[in-house]
Amino acid sequence: MTTVDGGFREQLDSLYAMSVDVAAQRDLDAVYGRALSYCLELTASAMGFIDLVNEQRVDMDVVAIKGFEPSDPAFFDRFRRMPVRPSVFGVVITEERSHISNDVEHDPHSTGTPPGHPPVHTFLGVPLQVGITVIGMIGVANKHGGYDADDERLLSTFANQVAVAIDNGKLYERQREMIERLQQLNRRLSDSEREQLLSLERRRIAAGLHDRIQQDIFMIGLQLGELLERDDLESEVGDRLRELRMAASRSADELREVVFSLASREGSGSELTSKLRRLLSDVERTSGLETDLVVSGTPTPAVERVQDTLHAVVKEALTNVAKHARARMVLVSIRYEPDRVDLVVQDDGVGMPEIGRERAEPSVLHYGMDNMRAQIAGLGGTFHVANGDERGLTLRLGVPLPAVAS
């Protein structure tokens, strides 16, 4: 098998550290500066820039530039904003694709350079993409010997991370502006008005996180998957890329937790749902089971009094499914009522012998089931286990909610 070039392997190895560093930045200028420095390092380029397009996609603004020394001191003032048009640079935006030119002067897309612009001999540009939307581009230039497909692949993969960091930075700035506005309004708002405003803003942020950043993480996973499909990928590099893909998967799980927490009213007892989502995600990752959670109703603060027991019982039930049921999937349903919580855990496995389903006396073989039944009984609840009509096992339980002092 053909081995990966040593320099390319080292670049892949450092890609993760670079991505983490850029993602950790909150200030947009810091994101731009760090990202562009890493782009030059990844591709051994002498100069580079980051452009962002405006909402109308008519112009693009240069938000960062390095290694660029124009002969005209007023060059930046005149050319910091450029029209979006087909050119060696602009084709990255107009056609939404990467572009390599190792002879810029004779490139079919070349439109010449403005007065005072430093000479550009070789060029590589890649889109900055958030989901399916191109928000700008990264361009690097003047690499000795020119650019190749490995340079394009590395820069494109890193550009996906940079696009996420830029989008996060913009979201952070908007959130900071929102907090400042809320602080100004705080003295004029009643408690109910303040809670309503905060609730609406949490939902808006949650929607943004779900619609944008979760898609970004998905796209990162796809890019890593493409790298892993290379026939000439060494096992060591493949292992590292698989670690990155798992890290992206974990980030997606954590993001779902954040989205759910933001969208739920604080202090409403919604922590149980959040814990169950995390539990099912862990089970799916470690056992290979397909999992799903169905939630109905609205949790109340009283759920906090019983959530630890309910979480422990569901965890025990899922452990039994993973170890003994030989199931392909498991479904957990939770229904919140004002005065009770009902839970169902259902799998499509082999079911359970009749002797094990409704035992009252302790049993070594069925200790887990007996323990679950005892915990629910301790809350004054009901516990029932039955084989499905065709296959699998269904566990149904319900507990009353204690009154919460107002």
Number of domain units: 2
The number of distinct helices, counting runs of at least 4 residues, comes to 10
> Which class of secondary structure composition applies to the elements?
alpha+beta
Name the CATH architecture of the largest domain. 2-Layer Sandwich
CATH topology of the largest domain: Beta-Lactamase
Strand content: 15-25%
| Assembly category | single chain
Mean pLDDT comes to 79
According to CATH, the homologous superfamily of the largest domain is GAF domain
CATH class of the largest domain: Alpha Beta
Rg estimate, integer Å:
28 Å
Low-confidence stretches: 355-365
Biggest sheet: strand arrangement:
3-2-1-6-5-4
Shape designation: elongated
Helix percent band: 40-55%
Our measurement of the CA-to-CA distance between the termini, rounded to an integer number of angstroms, reads 70 Å
Instruction: Give the SSE string.
Output: HHEEHEHEEEHHHHEHEEHEE
How many strand elements?
11
Largest sheet: 6 strands, antiparallel
